[in-house]
Amino acid sequence: MNVSARAEGGMIGRPTPRIDGRLKVTGAARYPSDVILEDTAYAFLVMSTIARGRIKEFDLTEAQAVDGVLDILTYENTKGKVRKSRYFMRGGYAASSVVPLESPKIWHDGQIVAMVVAETYEAAREAAYKVRVESSAREAAPGFDERRPQPRQTPHIFAGSEPQVGDAETAFQDSDVQIDAYYTTPTQHHNAIELYTTTCVWSGDQLTVHEPSQYVHGLKNGLAKQLGIKPEKVRAVSPFIGGAFGAKAALTSRTALVAIAAKRLNRPVKLVATRQQGFTVSTYRAETQHHIKLGADRSGRLMSLSHEGWEVSSRSDDYKVAGTETTALLYACPNVFTRVNIVHADRSTPGFMRSPAEVPYVFALESAMDELAAALSMDPVELRRINDTRVSPIDQKPFSSRSLRTCYDRAAEAFGWSKRNPVPGSMQDGEWLVGWGCATACYPTNVAPAEARVTLAPNGTARVQTAGHDLGTGAYTAIALTAAEFLGVSLESINVELGDSTLPPAPVAGGSNATASICNAVAQACEDIRDRLARAAVQSGGALRGADATSIRLSRGALVSADGRSEELKESLSRLGFGPIEGFSKYVPEVASLPIRIMGHTLLSRGLPVMTIGTSAGDHVQYAFGAEFVEVRVHERTREIRVPRLVGAFAAGRIVSPTTARSQLLGALIWGVASALHEETEIDERVTRYVNKDLADYMIPVNADIRDVEVILVPEEDHKVNALGIKGLGELGNVGTNAAIANAVYHATGRRIRDLPIRIEDLL
Amino acid sequence: MRPFAYERAGDLVSAVTAATIEADSQIRAPIQFLAGGTTLLDLMKIDVMRPERLIDINPLEKSLSEISFDRSGLRLGALARMSAVAHHPDVEREYPVISQALKLGASAQLRNMATLGGNVLQRTRCPYFRDVSWHACNKRDPGSGCSARQGLNRNHAVLGTSDHCIAAYPGDFAQALIALDATVSIAGSKGDRRIPFSDLHRLPADTPHIETTLSPGELITEFHFPARPWARRSLYLKVRDRESYEFAVASAVVALDLADGVVRDIRIALGGVATVPWRSLAAEDALRGKPLDESRAGMAAEAAFATAKTFGGNDFKPELGRATLVRALLAVAMLEVRS
Ligand SMILES: Cc1cc2nc3c(=O)[nH]c(=O)nc-3n(C[C@H](O)[C@H](O)[C@H](O)COP(=O)(O)OP(=O)(O)OC[C@H]3O[C@@H](n4cnc5c(N)ncnc54)[C@H](O)[C@@H]3O)c2cc1C
Ligand code: SF4
Predict the structure, then answer these.
(1) Residues 132-171, chain B: which have Cβ within 8 Å of A?
(2) What are phi and psi of A566, to 5 degrees?
(3) Residue A475 belongs to what domain range?
(4) B241–A125: do the CB atoms touch at under 8 Å?
(5) Whole-structure pTM value
(6) ipTM of the complex
(7) What is the distance between the alpha carbons of residues A551 and A6, in angstroms, rounded to a whole number?
(8) Is the minimum distance from the CB of B40 to ligand 1 under 6 angstroms?
(9) Closest alpha carbon to A69 in A134, A133, A132, A126
């Protein structure tokens, strides 16, 4: 069905302030962390301070003596209460396969070893400080042993994540110009402003969980599994989320403990994990290493590309992001070799963090491309142009659309790139060395099955219900615009409900799939309504009698036929019964494979991740692209690095909500600056423990660091990705920014920094 | 955080009397004064400081927050807020380095809250000190060892370190105090005293937990800056990993009395690189009576870091510290100063 043909038009793509903006700035929006129920008891976590070993003994005397302490959960009294849910990358729900409070075994620093529950937060915290844990530590492995290649330790778990074609090694040897370099990216943590909190309340055998979540159906089903109860007995609520970035997708070990405590006490229990505890309560982006070899002919054409990556995972799980899926098809190249290795360490299991694969892997490739341009004495933009491709070099599948060149043209022009003197160190301004750099941004277009219910009332107001999530991304606004478009009513008449597992299931808000998946589902539900109203109308004795039902549109509270006849909505509705009409849809991505077509909605309703990813979208590959340009300034003496200017041009199919889309890209560019210059979780390798676990020491840019940021939305039409032509851009903008900055630093100073973050000492 | 008793100070005498107590150092005493609370409450929440009693000295604000300037110099009450002093016109005009050091510290919210007295007593940012799950920290727990020496120590000191502690003194304002010959007035139950600011902080040596020469119960009431010819031609240069809201990786205070391109007198202090507020007499001596140019500045910087000792993560600091000082020296020489 081609839903777009029947749209009233004018709403999708209309710049609109965030519809929930007022609620947020006035404090009326209730985030899960804001929930305080009557008679709540408060929980506080106790974490392991060793990375590997066993708990020998607890001494709870002092803690239990604290006034107001109600309960202390340890493995000794909780063992066996939480059932195993499989690791989410292996078909389960959990962020790690380690079951909470299951045994005295310590897998990593910062593992939950006890949870104190008390009448007040303060009492719980005080008692938690007084829990004595005696444990025996064994030597722990912090991550990569050395900075350079590690032995291959685990076979990859996903087929196809190591694309290859031709003979890359021979072609590299035969190339006129060669780049052979290693790159690294550091450990990073999401540090969303909303902490990892959980409130659980039982009403009989019915459990309600208030927890910031980017996957309420996953939370509901996973928790039910862990508690050994039926999924319909669990409700997960998360209407607003104060940032998630991937860390609130899989089920962490805290939730079941809070549910158990609430059951034992028969009253609501609220847990607020501290900022410091958050570093190991949920997931993180693990450090990566890359070996890139590029071979090109003298004209700059790539002859050989080889990209080998190393990633750190935990002992218990084999998480990896395997970004070579993307780097292998960014440019035309006849010979490609890629490989991905996992190194297991005594760390908690890493997980998704905004553009999980692309941020580290594209950093390596786009840095190497800049090195190649320098070696060729070629403009880096020109090098990308020469190697642009319409098809994947691996299997020759065409891109559904690819506007990379246009993005480069538009961003380069806005930036003033033509005024760049290519000689490193040549563009000094007073005491500051000026550098200009660029890089490619890209992100796969992923689409998932989704369900939506739309209810249209006779007065023209509508309610849209789907268990999607607004992480601050603008989902409420994009969904409302879509419904307004297809129902032919104003934005104000649409009421969107999200973030509640009692609503029709929607996919995890991850992989930038939400807008594409949910808006298509909503459009179909609206179409369901239109279709039923239209068919009844043409068969009736009313104004639209005998009209072509397929040509009838909903417009301004009326049904309108192609020949100009119309009928009030009220009248059309009354024909179908009393009151509002409900439309429902089970959207299946147009590009979905047969198994997803058959099983998609079953998996979705079980809260399991199911998605058609950009590299396996039928007979084509689908990606969104962008080009990013940055200016850096490095002080000639003291080497502080500043980024006064960022310009990004992005093409991501149809832009449903340009205002919030722009905000997404703006924030992403800023995060890109952080990823290049600021963010790094430091590990004391002697004991495999994190050291800078708060926002005072874990650096992110502040307002003063961000000056001019320009976002250009490049128009792009793509009818292959899905009916509405939406690509999704939540994770596009922070891909490549780190490389653009490193490339600009090279241009400013002549120093090529291959290890992030770039700090003063790297340039002294 | 642990339970504590809270009381509001009635007057100065009763406050210092109430706070006088046996303890091995002022900073570890079970009774603490509460000023802005931006250091104290922070450290209480993370269980590093565990006072049993807080005496809120904000009721004394009226009498202890004076900012006054006259021929003899500048007086700053210990309860004056960082922001009030930073934006005071006399301070901005006569002692620009004080204003700059305060403006470049912390954030606007913190500066509105934080007092000068609390500011000079702020504690190190050593992450091992700030997280009680690290057992070895001589500053927190005397005799337990030092986690930082062989650990992560990018932010640690290279000057004034000892085998027992290498934590950097993090503050900015104290560098101005030590450079400008300031004195500190102190009230105590055994009487009042006035000491040079340079006598307030103690090198870590083998007692890093004793950070100052204050006795438990002693209260800083005032800072005094004498009038000096180099005060107006002064600046604070702070080098850090981001543009704002961040401690110095390296910083320098320079106050210069320049006559016909020749250094008549000069004051130099260094931040971010030393265990205590750090005046560099060696660098001053290298410049006094000499013309101030790039090569002299470089020699002074060499002298300033001649005794530097590094620990791995902070190997770059002497070089950055030198670059910072050279940049500050050349900048201060170029300043246009109205007489
Ligand atoms: C996130 C953050 C960033 C910061 N960044 C910077 C920075 O960049 N540069 C910088 O210089 N500082 C920085 N600071 C430190 C800040 O300046 C200090 O916390 C503040 O100045 C302390 O003042 P206060 O009045 O809040 O002290 P309080 O926290 O109230 O007191 C600190 C200590 O001093 C004692 N005390 C207070 N007043 C007196 C007195 N009159 N006599 C005797 N004892 C007293 C208290 O008992 C306590 O032990 C930062 C702080 C934070 C939290
Ligand atoms: S440097 Fe000082 S404060 Fe830091 S761990 Fe060592 S003793 Fe403690």
Answers:
(1) 133, 147, 150-152, 154
(2) -150, 165
(3) 21-29+450-587
(4) no
(5) 0.96
(6) 0.96
(7) 7
(8) yes
(9) A126
